Amino acid sequence: MAIARQDVEAFFTDYGRALGSRDATSIATHWGIPGLVMSDAGAVPVTSAGDVEAFFSSAMPQYAGVAEAEAIIVHVAWLSANVVAVEIQWQHKDDRGNTVGGESGHYMLGKQSDRLSIHVYAPKTA
User: What is the pTM of this model?
Assistant: First the structure.
């Protein structure tokens, strides 16, 4: 069965909670292995949950003051029954619910054993 939009929405709601909690282990559970991060700096392979945890642990200082990450789905492209590409606009909010920043990115999600996981991420900088 194809990936339902509501499953994509639920995935990013849960991933946003993990990001807002700043819990690198919880964030890593949303990534499939192998994975890839593609940016202007080049391609970075993700070969273990430890890679994800290390990246997010080192990136946490840039998100100081962010208590919540809300995902706004901009576009969804169903590529096959088990692969979907999603453009997300993140709104970063403080502990009072005020928007304090944000970022955009493209995600390729794969579905295996009825579970969605991020396999490719590319930040949108243009």
Answer: 0.93
